[in-house]
Amino acid sequence: MLVFEIVIALLLGGAGLAALSRRMGTPYPALVALAGAVLALVPGSPELVLDPELALTLFVAPVLLDAAFDASPRDLRANWRPVAGLAVGAVVLTVIAVAVAVKWRVPAMPWAAAIALGAIVAPPDAAAATAVLKALRPPHRLLVILEGESLFNDASALLIYRLALGAMAAGGVLGWSAVPTLLVVTAGSALLGVVLSRVSLRINAGVEDVSTAVITQFGSTFAVWILAERLHLSGILTTVVYAMTISRQASIVTPARIRIPSYAVWEVATFVLNVLAFVLVGFQLKTIVARFDRELWLEYGAIAAVVTGAAILARFAWVMGAGAFNRWVHRKSKSSPVTLSPGASMLVGWCGMRGIVTLAAALALPTGHEGTGAFPYRDLILFTSFSVVLGTLVVQGMTLRPLMSRLKLDDDNEVDHEVRLARVETLRAGLEATQEFQGTEISVLVRRRYELQLRRARQRLDEHALTATGGPSSPWGPPTEDARTVRTAMAASRRKLAELRANGTIGDAAFQQVEQELDWSELDLQQILRAEAAD
């Protein structure tokens, strides 16, 4: 019961830290990481140990699927070179740099264990960076590169991690013999992801209940990961391909009444998993820290500082070097899809905060239970991994906003233009499809609403050029007046509904049904107002 109470309290604390981070303009994992570090020093807190085999599946699979589902294949194809460079080149360089650094500090550590540590701390968590950057509206391409990198650097890093663990168990080292295995695993994982996405779409198409749909989504996510691992493929790569494939058809197969609440559930689930990952690492560090004396503190602290510095510098060196090389190669082309400006390269290089994948991989190291031997230097690797996460989130995460402001990388408005265009085309299609329905009052109302929205959307699409040349603004009135009208009408409706229930005119069943209808109506109107405000 005590553990349950502590977890609930920590989740509430995580929610508070997330709210505080939004006010500070920093990634919320930075504050949660600090809270996790504090847990390791709090006397009397319980010891919690997670099954290593469960760590990656529990923490990485749903978070990765949530990110991959929103990825854009079109944008990834347009930026495949920088994404591939970061996902492979930067990861490999970081693994090598960290392995060499830790071998320098701990010569007795086997190379396979040093490489495993490098693979654990190699993949940055783009969610922490993009959470800050989206509010600052950088060029869309930078967000695409960072988000695309986060999908595939996990796969490349954890492939090296698996090979290192296998080499450690076999008493050998990594070599060129691993290359055919990597190729087979990559191709097999991609194929499995496509096949499973087809199966999942057929299953989900027949689900009409919200709770059943959400449970099916989570269950299928874990099933995809587990099946890939059982087949000795990459759970990460299979999940990424599965999510990106299924997202192409999900908008057609899944109705809005299921999609809206399921998105909310996924958002909460990813937040909870992030908080729990930091909490569990804090609890496990407690047993390690309890064995520390002053000399060991200094030794482990120095190793963690060296590894953190190596991880940060390796990524920064790769991004700046690759950016300079590409600019030199394409120096005659002003619009190359490969090159990044020096400022953009600096920003991407600094977005190297580590997160949940690093924590999960560290937790997944064998602990020595059930007759198996513990992974060599597991305590040191876990301590160092958490230190890298904490250090990068605090140092890089809390300086990202001022760096972005100093670099002055302005939004290119690419997404805004595409949103305006999509509104016009979808409204026109809806209006054209309803031309034959003219008779009933509802038909007239629907068509009238589409006509009004289409006129406003067309004007917004054309207004960008006019505004740029000092042209007139929208004649439809300020958005605040529209918002005030919506709030006033909705508040009056809700007060009347509550009054009807209070005086006994209606019961709770009728109240709840009408309240749900008002909620959907309010969400619909708020979406329209947000679209107006965004323009």
Describe the 3D structure.
There is one protein chain. With 535 residues, this protein is mainly alpha-helical. It has three domains: 51-263 and 292-412, Na+/H+ antiporter like fold (Up-down Bundle), CATH 1.20.1530.20; 413-476; 482-535. The protein has 21 helices and no strands. The chain has helices at 2-24, 28-39, 52-69, 73-78, 80-105, 111-121, 126-136, 140-170, 178-205, 210-230, 235-253, 256-289, 294-329, 342-350, 356-363, 378-395, 400-407, 414-433, 441-468, 479-502, 508-534. The two termini are 51 Å apart. Residues 465-479 have low confidence and may be disordered.
**Overall form:** globular
- Radius of gyration, in Å, reads 26 Å
Level-1 CATH class name of the largest domain: Mainly Alpha
The CATH architecture of the largest domain is: Up-down Bundle
Low-confidence stretches: 465-479
**Mean pLDDT score:** 81
The arrangement of helices and strands along the chain is HHHHHHHHHHHHHHHHHHHHH
Number of domains: 3
CATH topology of the largest domain: Na+/H+ antiporter like fold
